[in-house]
């Protein structure tokens, strides 16, 4: 049986549609994952000092603001929160053990994170000598709703609804102090904070989207090549 031009055209359209759906699914999944509380740190190594950066999105469906955010630290030896305009920070210390157990940020009146925004919370800590740390977090809204980001990975390796932020300590220890850690004595300008937030918002998703579109295009080309090969085989 020979493939007619119409059959070839239909096959190519089907392949393109399949690749488009797969690409759209990837992009949709990425948007869902990005809505979770996430922690990151540059060159975080076991036993070193690093600045943890928590990305907290507003997720309220009824327009309420995120007015408080707290993280449970793994009893680190020391911690220092960065000054954040419109928010106050409080360290929960274990005086007997000489460690810091948690950090809580509270928004000033008429301040908070809306559903169309996210905020970056930074704290400099002395990391424990471990390969990774789980940092359960709590997000509180102005209507009293509390979301606890504290769930471990599912037994099958999947992601739960409210996963706890996890930081992999894969950096290289330098043996000294992190001089880039925030001192807490200088207040960053709102303009610089907005620029950093905009860069974080656009850089990561743009790179991921490009990779996913390329993957979708590769699927379409592979399907088209398969159709051409079948036509040549039937014609020979």
UniProtKB/TrEMBL annotation:
Residues 192-204 have a biased composition (Low complexity). Residues 182-191 have a biased composition (Polar residues). InterPro entries: YcnI-copper_dom, YcnI-like_sf. The keyword Zinc-finger does not apply. Pfam families: DUF1775. Residues 1-35 form the signal peptide. The keyword Nucleotidyltransferase does not apply. It comes from the Bacteria. Residues 36-169 form the YncI copper-binding domain. The chain crosses the membrane at residues 213-231. Keywords: Membrane, Signal, Transmembrane, Transmembrane helix. Residues 144-204 are annotated as: Disordered. This is YncI copper-binding domain-containing protein. It comes from Mycolicibacterium arabiense. The lineage of its organism: Bacteria, Bacillati, Actinomycetota, Actinomycetes, Mycobacteriales.
